[in-house]
Write a structure and sequence with these properties.
This protein has 205 residues and is mainly α. Helix content is 72%, strand content 0%. The longest helix has 25 residues, at 85-109.
Length: 205
């Protein structure tokens, strides 16, 4: 089940990358590159940091085909995307939770300490979006808008607690997805975010 969710997640993230590239007027090659790194960048960074080689997508070429195809198809569907905005937000939230859980799983399998497992989950969940925004020359949205990275943190902690307590995999996944989706949807609906730190040297002199 998690594999199917993962495929949906990377497709949604690739589409978000393609749209970001379109806002920067990139050519089709740029669209494909941004789509690829948005969808698979988080897992790539995680694998490098954890020493988990070979990097996951190098062993599963279908992930490459899926993300690049999704990015290019988005070019054709761009005019209709505003009508699919709500669905897209839900798919993006599903992707965040799925990536976080998968990241935690990888680190657990490698025998890392709890704090490393949590950070591996967060890295997998948010780093694709960070890479997308950096490549599109804008401040990473996942760190300054509605709750996003913090949702990944909560999901990672909840997932580890349930795993530690020996709860069945299906219930653990259901709980993680339910809490993650609820938090993300509430954050979007009511624009819930963490307090912002705004530093201006002049104001402190």
């Amino acid at each position: 089940m998690l594999t199917s969710i993962y495929l949906i997640a990377i497709t949604a993230e690739a589409m978000s990358g393609a749209l970001a590239a379109g806002r920067r007027n990139m050519d089709l090659f740029g669209v494909a590159v941004i789509a690829f790194f948005t969808a698979l960048g988080g897992g790539t960074v995680r694998d490098i940091l954890l020493g988990n080689f070979p990097v996951t997508w190098t062993q599963h070429p279908r992930y490459i085909y899926t993300t690049i195809t999704a990015g290019l198809v988005t070019v054709l569907l761009a005019r209709f995307m505003r009508h699919l905005n709500q669905l897209f937000l839900v798919l993006d939230a599903i992707g965040l939770v799925a990536f976080t859980v998968i990241g935690c799983n990888v680190a657990l399998r490698l025998g890392y300490d709890t704090v490393v497992v949590v950070m591996a989950g967060i890295t997998t969940g948010i780093f694709g979006g960070i890479i997308r925004d950096i490549m599109c020359n804008r401040t990473p949205q996942v760190l300054c808008h509605e709750l996003y990275a913090s949702v990944s943190l909560v999901v990672a902690i909840l997932y580890l607690l349930l795993v530690h307590e020996g709860v069945s995999e299906n219930i653990t996944l259901l709980a993680a997805f339910s809490v993650g989706l609820l938090m993300r949807m509430v954050a979007i609906r009511w624009r819930v975010s963490l307090p912002v730190f705004s530093y201006s040297q002049a104001s402190w002199e």
